[in-house]
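Structure, all three chains, one model.
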Amino acid sequence: MLDINGLSVFFGGVQALNKLSLQIRKGEIIGLIGPNGAGKTTAFNAITGRIRASEGSVFFCGEEITGWPAPRVARNGIARTFQNIKLYEDLSVIENVMIAAHSSISYSFIEAILGIGRYSRDEARIKSRAYELLELMNLGELASEQANSLPYGSQRKLEIARALALNPKLLLLDEPVAGMNPTETREFGQFLLTLRDNLSIGVGLIDHDMSFVMEVCDMIRVIDHGIPIAWGTPPVVRNDPKVISAYLGADFNGVMDNHATN
Amino acid sequence: MAVSRDRILTVFSLFILFSFLAYADSNFSHYTLRILQNIAIFITLAVSYNLINGIAGQFSLGPNAFLAVGAYASAIFTLSPEEKLRSFIIEPMLWPLSVISVPFAASLLIAGIVTALVAILMAMPVFRVRGDYLAIVSLGFGEVFQVLANNSMSITNGSLGLKGLHPYTNLWWSWGICVFTVFCTLRLVNSSYGRAMKAVREDETAAEAMGINAFRIKTLAFAFSAFFQGVAGGLLAHLITTISPSLFTFMFTFNLLIIIVIGGLGSTTGSIIAAVLITWGGEALRFFEEPANLFGFQYDGIPGMRMVLFSVILILVMLFARSGIMGRSEFSWEGALGWIKNKLSVMKV
Amino acid sequence: MASGFQGDFKFFDLGRHFSKSPPSSFTLSFEDKVLDYSFALQQLVYGLTVGCLYGLLAIGYSMVYGVLRLINFAHGDLLMVSAYVGFFGIVIFHLPWPVSFAGAIALTALLGILIDRGAYKPIRKSPRINALITAIGVSFLLENVALVTIGGRPKSFPTPDFVSGAIVVGDVSIPTLSVWVFVVTVVLLTLCMAVVKKTRIGMAMRALSRDMETVMLMGVDKDRVISFTFALGSALAAAGGIMWCMKYPAVEPFMGVIPGLKAFVAAVLGGIGSISGAAMGGMILGLAEVFIVAVQPEWSGYRDAVAFFLMIVILLTRPTGIMGERLPD
C-alpha cells in the first residue's frame, strides 16, 4: 500500500535521510526505529509532504505522492501524529477531532451561513463521529475540556483520535506511547492491534520503547544517521549485531529491559 | 429544545433592538443618531476585522485599505454623472465610471464584492509570510493604497476627494447591515470553516497534516472580512458624505486594533462590546478635546488627548489583561442565563 | 468619526533645499537624463544622502530585531523625539549646536531603554504578535503625547551655517549637508561595527541573537545587553533624525512614521539582523527613490510607494534579504 523507494532528504547541510526504502501493506504494523536523530521523523515528514524529499519516490495505493503538499496527502488517506504533540491547544477536545473532518465536508461556506443544504447533515455527522472516536479512546467525558488541560497521556490519545477522524488508510504514529506507563502502553498496544484487525489500516510506528515496538510490529526497519541498517521481524532485528552497535554498543537486551521497566 | 429556546431569545432581542431603533429614530437628536450609526458601522468593522486577526490568527494591519476601497467603490457608483463632472475638476473621471450611477443598495453590494476581490488578489503575496512579517506587509499594502488613492485622479479624484455624497446611510441601513454581518460571521465561525480557521491559528502545520489547505482558509477569512469592511466603507462614505484618502490612514486601523484587542482577540462578542465602548467612549472623550466653558473658566481643549488615552489603554491591556474582555469566549444564551442565575442566588444568600 | 488628528504624511520635496545649479529633471529628455553623467551623478549624491539617513534608522531596527525578534514599531518615532529635543535645545534654550545634538542623542537613547524596560520587557515571553501590538501602542503614544504637549503645527528646524551651501564639482553640486551626512554616517557605522565585533558587550549581542537561552545559562546579564542594544540603535536613529531635520526642516509629531516604515523596508532589504545589511538596504532604497522619480517625474507622487513596493517584492522573493539570516517562522 505504501511503497517508499530510495527516499533521501538533504537539508541544513545534513543528509538527514539516505535512500530509505520501506513497504507497508494493508493491515501491517511496521516499526521504524533507530537512535535519536536517526532521521525517523524526517522520514515521516517527507512521506506526508511536510518537507520535500531530495531524492527517491513515495507511492501510495499505486499513486505517486512524492512532492505532494501535506493537505493533499492527508486527504488521500495518510494520517499522522507528531512527536511533540501538536494539538490545537486553546480549542476543546471535541473540536480538535471535528476539525480533522473538515476535508470531508460537502457544503460550501455560503451554505454554512444560510444553514441550508448539506450543512446540518454534515455537521451532525461530524459531531457524532467525533464523539464515537473519543469514546473509542476513552476520552468521551473530556469532550468539552480545553485540549491543553488534559494530562499528557490523554493528549497523545487525543492526537490519535484526531488522526482517525481523517478515516485514514495509513496511520503514521510518531512516538505514540512516550510518557505512558507500562499498563497504558500495554493497553495501547492491544488497542493498536484491534484497530488493525477491525479497520485493516496500515500503521507505521516510531518509538523508543523497545518492548512495545517488538510486541506490536510485524516488521521493523532500523535506521541510523539516516541510513537504513536492518529490516526484519522483531526477533531478527533484536539480535542483529549492526542494530546493537548502532545503539552505542549497549547491550541491546539491557536497553530493552530499561525501556520495559520505565 | 435548547435550540429553539435560543432562537426565541435571539429573535426577541432583535425585536427589542429594532423597537429601540424605531423609538430613537423619532426621538433622539441628530447628534445621538450619528453616534448610533457610528457604533453600528464600527461593530461591523470590528467583527470582520476580528475574523481575520483573531479567529484565523492572520494578523493584518491593512483594513484601512479595504475600508477605502469600499468607500470609494460605493461613492463612485452612487454619484450621478453631473455630480461627477462637478467634482472631478482637475482630471475628468474615467469612462465608463463617469456615466454609471446605481442605487445605494447596489453600490454597497458592488463595494463589498470589489473589496473582496482585492483581498483575494492580495492574498497571494500577503500569505506567503507569517506573523509580524504578515502584519508589516499588510501595513505596506495599506500605505500603497493610500498613495494610489491620492494619485489616481481619474478614479478617486486624488486628494480632493469626493464631496456631496447623498446621505443614504440611516439607522436602518447601518444597524441592518451590522446585524447581518454579525449573523454571517457567527455562522461561519460555528461551521467547519470557522473551526478550520481556528486550527490554522493554533497550529498551521498540524492543520495541514489534517487535510486543511491553509492558504485557502486564510484567503476565505481575508476575503470574507474584506467584503464586510468594504460594505461598511460604503456606509461610512454615505454617512459623512465626504471622503478623501487622508481619512483612511493607519490611524483608522489603530482604532480597530484597539477595539478587537480590548474586546478579546478571537471573540466576536468581545468585538461587539468593545466597539460599543470605544466608539461611544471616544465620543464622550471628545469633550476633552473641544474648548469649553467650565464653571466660568475657559478650557481650551486638548486635541489628541483621546488617542493618548487609547494608546495607554492598549499598552496596559497588553501588559496586564492580554485576553481582553471576553478572551476567546463567545456569548451564549446558556452562559448568560447561567450567569444571571448565579448572581441571583448569590444575592439571595 | 473616531479619528483625532488626521496626520498628513506628505513626503517633503527633495529639490526645495538645494541650490538650483544642477540640471532640472523637467527640462531634460529621457535620453538626456540617462546619458547625462552629471545629471546621474547629481541624483547619486541626493540618493546617497537620503540613503544614509534611512540606513542609520534601519540599523536600529535590525539590531533590535536581531536580538529580540521584535519589530520595534516605535523606532521611527525616535527620529521625531530627537528632532524635537534638538529643536528645543537650539531654538528655545539657545544651547550651542553640539550640546543640543549630544543632548538629543543621549535623551533619545535613554528613551529607547525606557521603552524597552517599560513596555517590552514585561512581555518578552509572550507571542511576538503581542509585542508588535504593544509596539504600535507605544508608537501612537509617543506621537500623540507630542501632539498634545507640543502641538501639531510643524516647527521649523533651523539650519546651522556650517551645513549650508554646496561644493560644486564640474556640473555636480554636492551640498555641504550631504558631505556631513556621508562623513557622520561612515563614522557612526564604523564605530557601531567596531562595538559589535570587538567589544564584549557587542559579542554578547551577537550571541544573544543566535541563542538566547544558552547565553542566559552562561551568566550574561541579558537585560543589560538588550538595553545596550536599544540604546545604541536609538542613538543612531537620533543622529539620523537630527540630520534629517537639517534636510527636511519641518518638525511635527508624525514625521517619523513614514521614514520609520521605510527604514524597516531598508532593514529587510539588507537582511534583517545584519547591521551592514541595514546600511546597504538604506542606500539602495534611497537611490531607488531618487532615481525613479528623477527619471520619471510624473511618478513623484508615488515616491513613498516605491519603498512599500520594494518591501513586498523582497518579502515574497528573497525574504532573507541580501545579507541576512533565514526568515524565522
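Residues 250-254, 257-262 of chain A have pLDDT under 50 and may be disordered.
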